[in-house]
Write a structure and sequence with these properties.
Radius of gyration: 34 Å
Helix content: 55-70%
Structural class: mainly alpha
Number of domains: 5
Strand content: 5-15%
Number of strands: 10
Largest sheet: 3 strands, antiparallel
Shape: elongated
């Protein structure tokens, strides 16, 4: 199919509006003007035979006058052959139809630039208007926190389906994203259902319009290049090189920046994301936030533990600031922000902190006087001291009896439903969850009976060993759990199954461990512990697939020597692969490279 028809069909397939098409490159009309140029060339004697016989290079130079009219000038290069003045005259080099062609094309190009600029501005305005409306409904001060969590869930799915990256921004991914939102009935859970449904529809329409606009822009860029190339082919006159210098194929702000910068910055990021406020040590919400002198912040419990271990260095920048932290370092403004925007996570964190304090009291590990941030816990320790001791003395026998009884019931259930548990994924997960809820290791129960569950997990252990060893040269011994599940999805295994199997393996070989880096879990198959710096690098690589010295410098403030040393060690161990792109060394996660292949 010729490009003219392809151009029209592509416009139709992408549902480009008629008013946009009117502002696009008129490819077929320009093609007709090329035919007129060829006719005039034949009329003045500048035929293809003459051009080929004389072995001269005919080419155009271009200038733009103050009125933005382009002025083409046809020349013959004598260096490519001996010029015969009797056969090549000025009349042959002074055409009229070529001027009309280039001026028409240039004016269409200028009009297209103006249209793209206006359309980009309109779309950006709509994005900003929508962001204001959503922000009102998801404001942390709003009494109804449910809507905020639901929009956060929607935007997390939006990012999950790669719609924030330009290379993956397509209608197929967009439709999958919308279908997933509808299947999970998220829109029906909103308190202000009608309003939020309308906003979501507007959000969807904006994405569709962005897709159309990016396609429209790309098609017109191709059309300009194609028509100039066709001019050179039909006339044997070289114009592309110098004409392309006159035309800068500028792209609008919507296409030069990623979709994440356009939509995610104005809409997705206006709903605070939990990942931005996690403590870098425990990876839970950083409540109560202690902001150190280096400006990095952590949850109070992790800071207390660092001070008790007498570790003076900040886990991120390694400045010796930890021991100087006191109550004055509590960031009250950030603490208020976290309570307003993440009430569920804050409550969970508070419960977790109180539980840790109680456990410390009961174990009587910290009887001496405390200083710095540890003094914060003194009052609570006193409050829980008597209660904890009482619970320990009066309830321990009762709890032990109840747990033994419950364990016996679970054992009988396992014997009765042994076959079902080995094949039914849902039932097996519920059974494991019940065991964990009451603090019973499911493996202890499996070992007390000739359970087929044992066979299942032993087989899974073998598969983990084989697959981990086969991939060790590629990933250095850090196997993403997600990759393992993907390769063995036909077995119907889950993350919990992998967790149980790795725990089994760790008893036989301590090198096998399940570790978490950022939001991802890995099966570790080597006996060297990762440093804090290596963990930070791997967490950063998880986001974009690669890292570089400049990224580490800009985001973490690392010196060149520190960055290069860490990256060289990780390459030597196989955690990263090196690729040199445009003179810059990029260090890739092997798992991302496999995905791209």
């Amino acid at each position: 199919m010729k490009f003219g028809k392809t151009f029209e069909k592509s416009m139709e397939d992408h549902h480009i509006p008629k008013e946009w098409i009117d502002s696009s490159i008129h490819y077929k009309l320009l093609k007709k003007k090329i035919n007129k140029v060829v006719e005039e060339m034949d009329h003045v004697g500048l035929t293809h035979e003459v051009i080929n016989d004389k072995h001269l290079l005919y080419y155009y130079t271009f200038q733009e006058d103050p009125k933005h009219q382009i002025l083409p000038n046809l020349k013959a290069d004598e260096e490519y052959g001996a010029r015969d003045d009797s056969s090549i005259n000025d009349k042959m080099l002074t055409l009229h139809s070529d001027i009309l062609f280039f001026q028409d094309l240039y004016q269409q190009y200028l009009s297209l630039l103006k249209f793209n600029k206006i359309q980009s501005s309109l779309i950006l305005d709509r994005i900003q208007q929508l962001s204001i409306l959503i922000k009102k409904l998801t404001n942390g001060n709003n009494k109804n926190k449910n809507d905020m969590y639901l929009w956060r869930e929607i935007f997390n799915k939006y990012v999950e389906y790669k719609l924030d990256l330009k290379s993956q921004f397509n209608s197929k991914n967009l439709e999958i994203f919308v279908s997933n939102v509808k299947e999970n009935k998220i829109l029906k859970k909103f308190k202000h259902t009608k309003q939020n449904t309308e906003y979501f529809q507007t959000f969807y329409d904006l994405n569709l319009e962005l897709l159309k606009f990016l396609s429209f822009e790309n098609l017109n860029t191709i059309a300009i290049r194609k028509i100039v190339k066709k001019f050179d082919k039909n006339t044997l006159l070289n114009s592309s090189k110098n004409f392309n210098k006159m035309i800068v194929f500028e792209k609008s702000s919507l296409s030069t920046s990623t979709i994440e910068q356009v939509i995610s910055t104005d809409i997705v990021k206006l709903v605070p994301q939990l990942d931005d406020y996690l403590c870098p040590i425990c990876f839970t919400i950083a409540y109560k936030p202690i902001r150190l002198q280096c400006n990095h912040f952590f949850c109070i419990r992790c800071m207390i533990k660092l001070q008790r271990r007498n570790e003076p260095k900040c886990p991120i920048c390694r400045d010796k600031v930890v021991m100087f932290a006191t109550e004055a370092n509590l960031d009250y403004e950030l603490m208020k922000f976290l309570k307003e925007n993440f009430p569920k996570e804050v409550k969970q964190k508070q419960n977790q902190n109180e539980k840790e304090v109680t456990e410390e009291t009961l174990s009587q590990l910290y009887e001496n006087e405390k200083f710095g941030l540890a003094a914060f816990d003194d009052n609570k320790i006193k409050q829980y001291s008597e209660l904890g001791q009482s619970l320990y003395d009066k309830k321990i026998k009762e709890l032990t009896t109840q747990l033994q009884l419950f364990k016996s019931i679970l054992l009988n259930f396992l014997k009765e439903h042994n076959e079902e548990l080995s094949h039914d994924l849902k039932l097996r997960n519920e059974f494991i969850q019940i065991c964990k809820t009451v603090g019973i290791d499911p493996l202890q129960i499996y070992n007390k009976t000739d359970s087929k569950m044992n066979e299942f997990y032993f087989e899974l252990c073998v598969r983990i060993i084989e697959f981990s060893n086969s991939m060790q040269k590629i990933n250095g011994g850090l196997l993403p759990v997600k990759d393992f599940l993907s390769n063995f999805q036909e077995l119907g295994i889950t993350f919990k199954d992998v967790e149980i199997s790795v725990n089994l393996l760790s008893k036989l070989n301590p090198e096998f461990k399940l570790i978490q880096i950022g939001s991802k879990f890995y099966i570790k198959n080597f006996n060297i512990e990762l440093t804090n710096d290596q963990n930070m690098v791997l967490e950063a690589v998880n986001n974009i697939g690669y890292i570089s010295v400049s990224i580490l410098r800009d985001n973490f403030g690392w010196k060149l020597y520190r960055s290069q040393t860490i990256l060289d060690e990780m390459i030597a161990n196989g955690y990263l692969w090196l690729d040199i792109h445009n003179g810059e060394s990029l260090y890739w996660d092997p798992a991302w490279i496999n995905k791209m292949e």
